[in-house]
Protein 1
Amino acid sequence: MKKTIIIIHLFIGFSLCNLSAQSIKLDDIRKEYSKAVDNQFICEKWYHLFEKEMVLSNQKLKAYKGGITIAMARYVVVAKKTPLVLQGKKLIEESILNSKDDVEIRFIRYSIQVNLPPALGYNKNKIEDRNFINTHLEQFPNEAMKSYVKKFMEDTKSK
């Protein structure tokens, strides 16, 4: 009986470890990223999922983590806002440094920079990114994303 209980506990423990070790799928974050800015539940979900990711060798995922981290600043107390923005900015800039020609990463930075208050000083690449995105729009991975980006670019034309 005692061995059975130990085996059950080990099985449950391994199952829980396996669940938390599942890596984030790029397609999943792509589907919900735009909603995270306006939906605290979605933002917190992704923020906590990214917190569990120990190493992000995928530059796109690192950039999404940066974007989610900055978006999280919207939902925390004032004292925690600046550290989150700085942490997110660092992740995005590292991603761009490692994948400068990736249109999706540049779009993440652009979407953050056009929506952050200018006083935060993270807005210097808007024109450069906007031009790059418009030139490389066909490189987005699917039609739904291309359509979303086109609309976003049109909506932020004057920012």
Note: The helical segments are 2-21, 26-36, 40-52, 59-72, 78-98, 103-113, 126-135, 143-155.
Protein 2
Amino acid sequence: MSDREWILLNPGPANTSREVREALVTPDLCHREPEFFEVMRDCRERLVRLAEGGHGFAAVLFTGSGTAAVEAAVCSALPADGGLLVVDNGVYGDRLLRIARAHGIPTRALSYDVTTAARPDDVRAALRAEPQLTHVAVVHHETTTGVLNPVAEIVRAAAAEGRRVLVDAMSSLFGEPLDVRQDGIDFVMASANKCLQGVPGISFVLARRSALDALRGRPPRSVYLDLANHYVTQEQDNTPFTPAVQVLHAMRQALKELEKEGVRERIARYAENARVLRRGMTALGFEILVPEGARSSVLTTFKLQPGIAYDPLHDAMKRRGYIIYAGQGDIRKYAFRVSNMGTLTPAVMHGVVEAFASSLAELRAAGAGR
């Protein structure tokens, strides 16, 4: 079964094209040769171009999961006398808090229920109450439940108070509309294996060059995750450490494919994927956990039906070639997640719904859903 091709309904790593996977099989290459630096520079330039960052932005690459880029941005962006307001309505908002606290950065959490989108007025009030908070960090798409936070409005509120914003766009960049150039945004963090449709191993920070330049000379809180050091060396076609050479080749292919499809077209495909999925699943009797106005177009959390437990449902779907995703923490007991990122199409999502219908029938017939 190891060579079976699964339909991945988890929020990354997502299904990729054959060409992306084949790009991994490249001749062995030293990471300090010009042939590699050409690949790295190409990836950085394509990222900025596709994100519509313009000349005022740069992409800084890290070998590591998405959390590496998030931690690099947080621990590098905050000055010694700075403080961070963290919008927390899920696992990844909580991770932002844990990262900041691990580096001794003063934090204030603005907490919500995991199905509730953040409110810009709350951000404004918190910043007015605590002038020592110099930055705001917010997760654009919180994959704990599929909540989409109103980033544009939050950034506007922060910018009006003279604060700078870090946006964790891990599972939204190239999958949901996001204006990275909006006044107030300094850093946007994402990775290759989500809506970019590359393979795991590379994460990146899209950053305003003025914000990157302001980091120079500041004592780093981390050696490996020092954003300023990576930026300076990558601008010189160099790297401080050994990057994932093969993964960057795959990332370049994924970027070429995104350029060919078009960012707006990919966002529209994901939205149609979600529409097909949600319409089909509600017809099967599934309820969506997140209220309609707060949902992303990338992931949906469905409530488990009475008498159907997650593990048997997961296994029934897996037998049909589909990998669904458990809820995180206590949510696992009453809900599960279905993502529709990656190379999936509306036709594939019709197949997903049919597989759920078949799985439900099987579990009810066997009485094995408990």
Note: The chain has two domains: 7-12+262-366, 19-260.
